[in-house]
């Protein structure tokens, strides 16, 4: 047995040396990881549009004259503001103006004829009253009274006919004036001229029935700007008017602007069966800024369904598929099971499993980042090795 003691000691020494070498010389290098500190703050539960949204305006009119004619004036050009009722285009109206003058003169003549006829009817009516008195005294015959009565009836009928003629002439004058008015195109509301597609001297042709013709003036109201965005149909039951939202616009560097949901479409768009969506409309809180946005600009909408203040939170990127996180303890990674609450793409509420001040790994995109691994924390700004 004594001969075995030295051999046993040598073997134990070799094992110890191998273990030590593995733990030191041959040990794998620590894994560099990015971490975030568990801290308190605000967490929101949000939903975002499934495809890019669009800046739109509720009032936009593509205008064309109702009648054809030669363009004689375009008082306002692209980018100019106009008031409701202001002229934006005029056609040659010499013919319509002449018809209006003729119709007005005919109305004046009809009015004069009506006055004459009704005056004669009044005289005949008075004559009938006088002759009825004479007839009662036996001073005139019944035949003469009948003649006076017939004259009075004829006078009244002539008066009514003259009134009808006057009304007909008035209607003709009104029709001529309406035809004249159609040669002038006016703004239906306050807005900005977005586009003019015709020039002075060109001929404007009205649109035949069922045949669309491009408009000559495009008018939009910048005060009625809103954003329309498609949301996944699975979120349609959670989004409702009145919820707060945020809008990011590509033309403004992705900056987020507060907004409010004002409408949720009462139907689901199913043109693409595998991508059904519901349209949501939001209005920006800053209406002055909204008026500067160009209709047609792409935008994204994030609707805030719920929010909690002063709760423990971690970056959503720190969550594993299993619902746990990797915490850093004494230079090693330890898996922690957590119970989460509200979450969004950026942050997640932690209700149980972590305490404030602990550090969790956010760089989970490498296989070597796993529970038990030795790690070194990468400082902010350091490049990944």
Structure write-up:
There is one protein chain. Helices cover 28% and strands 34% of the residues. The mean pLDDT is 87. The strands form six sheets. The protein has a six-stranded antiparallel barrel. The protein has a four-stranded antiparallel beta sheet with strand order 5-12-10-7, with no helix packed on it. It has four domains: 31-43 and 309-377, conserved putative lor/sdh protein from methanococcus maripaludis s2 fold, CATH 2.40.420; 59-92 and 183-220, Beta Barrel (OB fold (Dihydrolipoamide Acetyltransferase, E2P)); 102-163; 223-307, Elongation Factor Tu (Ef-tu), domain 3. A hairpin with a 2-residue loop joins strand 18 and strand 19 (332-337). It has helices at 4-23, 94-136, 142-181, 287-290; strands at 31-33, 35-37, 39-48, 53-57, 60-63, 69-73, 81-82, 87-91, 184-186, 191-196, 203-204, 217-220, 225-232, 244-249, 256-264, 277-284, 298-315, 324-329, 332-337, 339-343, 347-352, 359-361, 375-377. The protein is built from four helices and 23 strands. Helix 2 (94-136) runs antiparallel to helix 3. It has 385 residues and is of the alpha+beta class.
> Helicity level, as a percent range?
25-40%
CATH architectural name of the largest domain: Beta Barrel
- pLDDT average, as an integer? 87
Structural class: alpha+beta
User: What top-tier CATH class of the largest domain fits best?
Assistant: Mainly Beta
What is the molecular shape? elongated
Instruction: Tell me the total number of β-strands.
Output: 23
Strand content: 25-35%
Low-confidence stretches: none
The SSE order reads: HEEEEEEEEHHEEEEEEEEHEEEEEEE
Task: Give a quick account of the main beta sheet: strands, pairing sense, barrel closure.
Answer: 6 strands, antiparallel, barrel
Number of domains: 4
Q: What Rg do the Cα atoms give?
A: 44 Å
N- to C-terminal distance: 55 Å
**H/I helix tally:** 4
Would you give the CATH topology of the largest domain?
A: Elongation Factor Tu (Ef-tu), domain 3
